[in-house]
Design a protein that fits this description.
This protein is an all-alpha fold. It has a domain of 96 residues. It has a two-stranded antiparallel ribbon with strand order 1-2.
């Protein structure tokens, strides 16, 4: 069904080549070349303006830009959450270290309480060391390494007569 030179198929947007019958046997599917409305010089100018390599590079560049924008969007979306997670992880590590130190101190104190309740020799050592208790007739000599002896560097004082 054709009206003039335009078939009803081309009116609805389909190409007529999709429905054309197969070429007769013996022909190699020769087609009539498309007759352009534009003059041949204008067609050549249009082809020269369209540089396929340029459009190929521009398409790649645009694709890379879109991918980078997507990565940037995802990164900016999740950065605050990542930062908050790292803060919580550091806080957890600090709390675990503090807990471990407190548990060590608790074990030390429990051991000391156990020794004070069960070992009279330990009680005697603590009483002598911290309280300064001594047995009758005993002399205590303390050597404290934490204090440096006082040494005067100035001239000796003169005796006045």
């Amino acid at each position: 069904m054709t009206v003039g030179n335009i078939s009803w198929i081309s009116r609805i947007g389909m190409s007529s080549s999709a429905i054309e019958p197969a070429p007769p046997a013996g022909t190699r599917g020769t087609r009539i070349p498309f007759q352009s409305v534009l003059s041949p010089t204008r067609v050549e100018q249009t082809k020269q303006r369209r540089n396929p390599a340029l459009w190929h590079y521009l398409n790649r560049f645009l694709t890379v830009l879109i991918i980078l924008a997507g990565i940037l969007f995802v990164g900016l979306t999740f950065y605050p959450e990542w930062k908050h997670r790292n803060q919580l992880a550091r806080k957890l590590e600090d709390e675990q270290a503090r807990l471990q130190a407190e548990q060590l101190l608790q074990k030390k104190r429990e051991r000391e309480v156990h020794l004070l309740q069960t070992d009279p020799g330990y009680v005697e050592i603590i009483a002598r060391d911290k309280l300064g208790v001594m047995k009758p007739g005993e002399t205590i000599f303390r050597l404290d390494g934490s204090r440096a002896p006082v040494v005067e560097t100035g001239p000796a004082p003169r005796k006045s007569e």
